[in-house]
Amino acid sequence: MSHSIKQDLRGLHRLPLALCLALAVSGASLWSAAAWAASNDNNVEWAGLFHDQGPLYDSAPEPTASTPVTLTFRTFKGDITSANIKYYDSADGQFHWVAMHWAANDATGTYDLWQGTIPATSSKKYYRFQINDGTATAWYNAAGITSSEPSSGDFFVIPGFKTPSWMKNGVMYQVFPDRFYNGDTGNDVTNGAYTYAGCATEQHAWGTGVTANVSGCNSAVFFGGDLAGVDQKLGYIKSTLGADIIYLNPIFSSPTNHKYDTQNYYTVDPAFGSNATLQQLIGDVHSASNGPSGYIILDGVFNHSGDSNCWFGAQSYDAITCPQQGAYQSQASPYYSYYTFQTWPGSYSTFFGISSMPKLDYGASGSATRNQIYGNSGSVVQTWLEQPYGIDGWRLDAAQYLDAGGNNGSDATNHQIMQELRTAVKSVNPNATIVGEYWGDASSWLDDGTEWDGAMNYNGFTQPVSEWICGVDESGNSAALVPSKLDSWLLGTRADLPIDVQQTMTNFLGSHDTSRFATRCGGDIWKTYLGLIFQMTYVGTPTIYYGDEYGMQGGADPDNRRSFDWSQATTSNTAVALTQQLIRIRNTYPALRTGSFMTLLTDDTNDIYAFGRFDQNNRVAVVLNGTGNTETVTVPVYEESMTNGSQVTDLLTGTKYTVSGGTVTLSVEGHYGAILAQ
User: Using an 8 Å Cβ cutoff, are 361 and 337 in contact?
Assistant: First the structure.
């Protein structure tokens, strides 16, 4: 049975069984069958229903308080008798109804387009659709289609909430500074340069193992990567690859290579350079002289400091003299309220029991800790956003744990802190971004426009994509997904979030906290190809963890932080060349960035997943082959309103196809894909 017929039977689930079988036997496509079947017959044809908040279906995805929102809903032509928008308005706590009217047919003549308008107000609203064919009713919201009215999963309207357009339209490149490139050998941390927590520093040669010679001292291994190195390689990131957003793992002074135990939030670590080095790097990232004008995001480790921080003062590893005693040294310290002690000084709240990472206590609104981290003009958050630095945003480490009293966060106090932090960030730069680290459903911080702009998309991209392509989760544990389950997962995680948040979620194949994607996929470079194609065409901000673009190997921390192999950083490496091509394609087609998303095909038997991305200018069908074999795939592109006789071009190969019977049939190599555009 062909792929198209399998898809047809999925779409025709509400037709009589005899008709479904007859269509399958005859080989008729859904494109021709739907028009014949759709009528006012007390039966809503679910296969014809579609809406999302793409530019063709939502007139104002980021409305102001004075912007009415006109919504468009698609049905099969002649299929329904009426349609309504039902929306909940937070201003009065009531549901309201808007009757929709027929507006037009699509280009193929297969579909009717209905419209209705939600009036402009400043209040948050949540909407769903009621679709009627005589006595039959279907309901449609962001979570899907149901026969009875849903109680969750509605679309969002949040007046006044806007996520940065550069995040929606950009490609991010994540750098772990010590392992990227050594641009200044004069600041290298040498063997025995200092001892911290019983571990003497070890200088390892570039390209050698990341494991320390002394057990338990992996954080004391240094390779010499620094900010000058990042600066010198901006041409590779921005021009060769085409990425325009740089995200740096922590760069502030700290005794370890990872620097998640900050000693001083106001000083760049000497092994990475100086504040002036950072200022130069920021200016060069912003410049258009070495590739596209870009943006830079720093890692904010604000849940905890290091125990060598002058605010705490439990350990020292250098000659820095603190102006005042820290909380560990004296209860009279001006920083005593910054931390939570159960029994001073030896028992205190930490990050997951790690004594070298004492947890910051944010106290009540207006506390000294809040003012120091984000609340004042001289605070950490605002200092680096302001001139002469002017960074473009913060990634918030362990963001759900920030709280008062040494608790584990994820409570009302955490949300209050995040709301205040957002106010502080946007007061300096309204176009700056806030990206939270959260591994599960981050919607609590993202669903009302008052906290983060986006989050690291472990839940909505990294894990499901790894399970489908590699057969393991992001930690390497066995877990396999078939395309239909993958699609359901992705639909559910998109439905959790407003559309402009979906578009700024950072979609990465791996990070500094996961094993490498290539390793999870058994070293099969073709699976890296497939992951890259998926990453660059899906909803969200593609984020490349340094080296993933060439298939860098690595197990769990610290092996996932190997030094970059610069012999691979050329387009003679096929994965690097593909990354360059994909970023160019993404930059050329706004539909891949802010267009609609529509599932076109889920074939569990042949492991095929296809989806559409489209806007007013282009229609793109992305076909992904999860098997190792070349597969012939028939894609129902009429669902994107591609007309018969029109041509599509595979942007990866240049091959042209003609739409016939509402479909395009093509061969797709194993663990690869096609990007069909018109």
Answer: yes
